[in-house]
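Posting here for the record, re: fe (iii) ion.
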Amino acid sequence: MALLVRNLAQIATPSGRTAVRGRAMRELTLYENAVLVVDGGRFAFVGRESDLPNDVTIDDDFDARGMTAVPGFIDTHTHLPFAGLRESEFNRRLRGESYESIAASGGGIASTVRATRAATQEELAQNVLARAATMARYGTTTAEAKSGYGLTRDDELKQLRAIRDANATSPVRLVPTCLAAHEFPPESRGDESARDAYVDAIVDEILPAVAREELAVFCDAFVERGVFTRAQGERVLRAGRELGMSPRLHADELSDTDGARLAADLGAASADHLMQISDAGVAALAASDTVANLLPATSFFLMSTKYAPGRALIDAGGIVSLSTDCNPGTSMTESMQIVMQLATLQMKLTVEESLTAATLNGAYSLRLAHETGSIEAGKRADFVLLDAPSYLHLVYHFGVNLVRHVFRDGVQLP
Ligand code: NIG
Ligand code: FE
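Prediction output follows.
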């Protein structure tokens, strides 16, 4: 069943089956007065209407009425399976309390851990589905989703099983990550030996149980002052890798812990956050195949003026991607559009670089660049129709949802 999507003002997409690095990120492929043909869930033809071969059989026809097609967005860092919300902590932050002091008083990650432990697997799956529906409405077709609010073997498994369950009907393709090393469990926080015991439990019990059920593709750790040390993070990520889970890393978010270099040395799929990355960290990432995954909505939501040095990372030749960090504490949004707007207006990426970062480079960091992340014949037909005459409106026309139609695997999402 071939579907013709016609009357597109423009198709705008990065190209290739791998990441695009450095300034090549600004080279988009553009077709004006364009059409798409989708067959068997994949793109069969992409190009100008005048170049459409006349021997293609078309079964169905979709009039895009002058809209612009871009690849479905790829959100590679989310904490989707959580219960409970933290709007009152947010209000405390608005009155001047810091994120760290709220966390130290028992709020922060610990309060979401309490609510998540109290929730059933089914409730968590429902929460994931509700958030995935919002993501899809805003143009996301693939998203990574992390555990990390359980912090016991059973509660981490519950979160990951909820992602698996949701993925059966989710409009967004979900890629699971085990983030058991997100924080120390509240019951073992102050005590050094209890902390060590938790790292042992991650390595000896939690990760092997996750691997047995094949519940995660990636393993992540939050290496941060007062949370996991570099050595603890490295131990967890190496153990995950032994079990077949590639490393990702929350690196240099609130302080510089040389996390970027650790991620590059480990050959991690991504180093995420990087607000406090050092110049040496920028150089190490730029010289590696580890994706610098930037989350500008987190800086924005924490009311920080400090954004990750996206411009410098690209100018140094790095591979940059963008994500929401969707979570109840530091970034309560599902919208990749606001993320691209912040990346462009605050981190000084070009619109073209932001689009490449939000699509193909994200696909690469999830090891899916051969399948999705660009509009090209042969790839999965994951694309978005924007109510706009060109891709520039993604940033120019900010603060509104430009997405009118979303297709994943060639199927229009409701
Ligand atoms: O990515 N860095 C750690 N984790 C989250 C925050 C989680 C929370 O506050 O619940 C982040 O910013
Ligand atoms: Fe995060």
